[in-house]
Amino acid sequence: MTTQDLYPTRVSHRPAMIPRKLDPTVYGQAEDGPLNRQQLTGHSQDGFTSIDKLLTDSELRSAQQELRSLLTDPRLDGDERVVREKNSQEIRSIFDIHHISEEFRRLIDDERLAGVARQILGSQVYIHQSRVNYKPGFGGNSFYWHSDFETWHAEDGMPRMRAVSLSIALTDNYDYNGSLMIMPGSHRTFVSCVGDTPEGYYRTSLQEQEIGTPDTASLRALADRHGIRQFTGPAGSGLWFDANCMHGSNGNITPYPRSNLFIVFNSVENALVEPFAAPQPRPTYLGARTVEPIGSPTKAMAS
Amino acid sequence: MTTQDLYPTRVSHRPAMIPRKLDPTVYGQAEDGPLNRQQLTGHSQDGFTSIDKLLTDSELRSAQQELRSLLTDPRLDGDERVVREKNSQEIRSIFDIHHISEEFRRLIDDERLAGVARQILGSQVYIHQSRVNYKPGFGGNSFYWHSDFETWHAEDGMPRMRAVSLSIALTDNYDYNGSLMIMPGSHRTFVSCVGDTPEGYYRTSLQEQEIGTPDTASLRALADRHGIRQFTGPAGSGLWFDANCMHGSNGNITPYPRSNLFIVFNSVENALVEPFAAPQPRPTYLGARTVEPIGSPTKAMAS
Question: Could you tell me the keywords of this UniProt record (chains A, B) (predicted)?
Answer without folding.
Answer: Dioxygenase, Iron, Metal-binding, Oxidoreductase
